[in-house]
Structures are given as structure tokens and as C-alpha cells.
Amino acid sequence: MEDPLKFLRNIKSVSVATVDKGMPAIRIADVMLNENGKLYFVVARGKPYYKQLQENPEIAIVAMDKNYVTVRVKGKIEFIGQSLLEKIFEKNPVLNQLYPGDTKSILEVFCLPKGTGEIFDLSIAPPKSERFAFGGATVEQSGYLINENCIACGICKDACPVGAISEGSIYDIDSSICLECGNCYEKCPVDAIDLPKGL
Q: What is the pTM of this model?
């Protein structure tokens, strides 16, 4: 698996979701730097985006490359003032055109120091996913799970569109290819399938 933070920096322009007065808000923003296991961004203090981040520092990010590999991440940001601003301008020279001279003083740097995420690769069949965490966050296993109520009837296996379920005295779901569609969960006659834990 490619380093997901490097992946996001290489894509650069990502969708960033915030909360605005209790409603979802989203915009395209650039990942300006990936350093020391953190993602760095800049925002102008006059933007609604800045106010949303001040009021609720939780964000969610998603990006897809040309091969239909998607990375999504969520976590809590930290503002670090103008620390690293010069380095960010050096690594992202287009900023010098947008904020020439001392106009860059309107910008503040924030980072995502820790979070959880998932890589979802649609370029292969069946698609594969893998969850990850960084900065000390804890990752939950993806996919549905079959519990001890299983009677090995095979209904769930027939219901899975990608063949993620294998036979056994208790059937098993391969979490790396489980689409989390819920078809097995809805079809199971004995409540032997547990809901996945959300990302």
C-alpha cells in the first residue's frame, strides 16, 4: 500500500469537508506539505472556511487519482499560525502568484496531526480497501463480521457480490474486499452478521 499521506500530497487538490452552522460544507483545497507524518494546509483568515475550522476543527478529506484509487481521511486539525509558511511557499510556488509580497500575512497554516482513513482501490477486481491510522490514532477493522450465531447455511456467501465470504463451521468475510454493501447482513436468517464499524 502506498503511503496514504504521500498519496494525498501527490494529488494535492483534495476535497475537504467541514461543518457550517450544523450543515456540511465542502471545498477543494491543496495539501501544501506532508512532513513528519502530518498534512499541512493554508487558509486565509477572511474565508468562511477559516471560520468553520475555528468553530469546529474536525475535517474529512477525500481524493481520487486517475486510476480510481481513493483515499479518505478524517481527524481534528490544529492551527500553527504562520509556522512553516515560508517552506510551504517554497514547495508550492503558485502561492507567490496568489499572495504576492506581504499579502501572504493573511494566511494561517493548519495541520492534521493525527487521524484515521481508508484506501479504496477500484482499479482492480474485486476492489480492495485497507484502513489506516496515523499520529497515534486507532484504526477500526473494516467490513462486516460473522459472529458465533452462524449456522453455515451459505445464504450470505451467495448474497455477496464480490465473493468476499468463505465457507467454514463459521463463515468468514475477507475485510479487504468487503464492499460493506450490507447484502449479507440483510439476507442472514439468524442475525449472525455484525455491522461494520464506521470510519
A: 0.86
